[in-house]
Specification:
By secondary structure, this protein is of the alpha+beta class. The protein contains eight helices and nine strands.
Length: 242
């Protein structure tokens, strides 16, 4: 659930006119745009721009032309979730990766609030262009259902992919589905669909929980009432969803 009118107002007042420089990421933070998804999209664009800038726009043919794409798919086999991706950038060899969470389906569940929870640790393996490059154990803090181990592991995976595409220092890579919020969102959908494939409402309940952190909504789609909207999303009214 989203409000294009509210989002459009924020884009005009907070984003329009911003320059792609060192201050850009700070200008598009969720606290300013009031949309966590907007940060994901624009930070990805910014990362790709910086990567292209590092290669030198003048040397690209047609002049200044650059493109990228990342295709990702997931499947479950014997209780293990495998996420396979291919990242393509104009002028570079494709980078292929696989992230596997072993035996996760027998160890994972959801809290009553729809938050992902692991009952025990899960072995994670990351393969890059056919080689195992990272291994780790993933657990979840069951007191607040945070994902610190998974977050750390995903950031390490992203660093490996970025070094293949753009080894230059000082450039952060947000333009990938391995970005924690994007990947955890896909993981929640994959698990919820397998566990509750006949309960669409619960799947949506789990996705809504993803858009809240410590009971604070990160998106208008996760709001519970107008009082919460007044506190966290100034200027938003539920009538704008109609």
């Amino acid at each position: 659930m989203c409000s294009h009118r509210y989002l459009n107002r924020n884009l005009k007042t907070q984003v329009r006119g911003q320059v792609f420089d060192g201050s850009f990421l700070g200008a598009i933070k969720q606290e300013k745009t009031h949309c966590s998804h907007l940060f994901e999209v624009l930070s990805g664009m910014y990362s790709f721009y910086r990567m292209a800038e590092n290669r030198g726009f003048a040397g690209l043919r047609p002049r200044g032309f650059m493109y990228e794409e990342e295709a990702i798919d997931s499947y479950t086999k014997d209780g293990t979730i495998h996420s396979l991706g291919t990242h393509r950038v104009k002028g570079l060899a494709p980078v292929c990766f696989r992230l596997s969470l072993h035996d996760i389906m027998g160890k994972v569940g959801f809290t009553g609030g729809g938050v992902l929870r692991l009952e025990e640790g899960v072995a994670a393996v990351f393969r890059l262009d056919g080689e195992n490059v990272l291994k780790g154990m993933i657990s979840i803090n069951n007191q607040n259902c945070g994902h610190p181990d998974l977050l750390k592991f995903l950031l390490q995976c992203i660093a490996k992919v970025k070094d293949k595409l753009c080894p230059a220092k000082g450039i952060r890579m947000f333009n990938t589905n391995l970005y924690p919020r994007a990947y955890i969102g896909m993981l929640i959908q994959a698990v919820a669909i397998r566990l509750f494939n006949n309960n669409y409402n619960y799947i949506m309940h789990a996705l809504t929980a993803l858009q809240r952190f410590d009971e604070v909504p990160l998106c208008v789609g996760a709001l519970t009432d107008q009082a919460e909207a007044d506190r966290y999303f100034p200027g938003f009214d539920f009538t704008e969803l109609i």
